[in-house]
Structures are given as C-alpha cells and as structure tokens.
Fold:
Amino acid sequence: AKLNDANERVIEALFKTLNNDPNINVRLVAIESLARYVKTPEVRMGLVKSIALQDSPLVQIALADLMVALQEKASVESMKQLLEQPNIDRTVKQKLQESINHII
Structure:
C-alpha cells in the first residue's frame, strides 16, 4: 500500500540522514529504521541506491547484510559499483563479494 504523507516525510528524512549525516552511528540507526519499511518498493530501491553513496565501511557492511536478508537482486549492481572504488576497505570488499554470491 502507498505510504501516507507522514510516513513519506519520515522516510525521506531517514534517507537524507542515511546519505548525508556525518555521524556513522546515526546512519546505522537510519538503516535500522528504514528496515521496518522494506515491504515498500520505494524504500527498497532507496536502500539499493544508497549503497553506492556510502563511504563508511560499517554502513556499507550494514547495507550489504540487509540486502542479503532481503535477497534484493537489484542491489547486486550497486554493490559491484562499490567494489570498483579504488580505496574500498578489504573487509568490505570481501563482504560485498560474499553478499553478491548469496544473492545471485
């Protein structure tokens, strides 16, 4: 079902926080909050798009874990884009490769 206006505003604020907040812990909480709305296609696609925007290894791993839990095939391309970044953390690289394998 379509989200009502209040929820749409909350979700928009959560995505803004996830993609822009300088505090990693705040971004992790935004992921947890957004995970409650993953039945909504717009939220799932927003999370997929957010993968490539993240620079924190903890946030990258949290999103990868969520994508595996959701078995979100649309996230594979975003994770591959992240893998192409030259300065990606080794642990994140391994996690992303494992996540892609679990999804496909």
Summary: The radius of gyration is 13 Å. The first helix runs from residue 5 to 20. The mean pLDDT is 90.
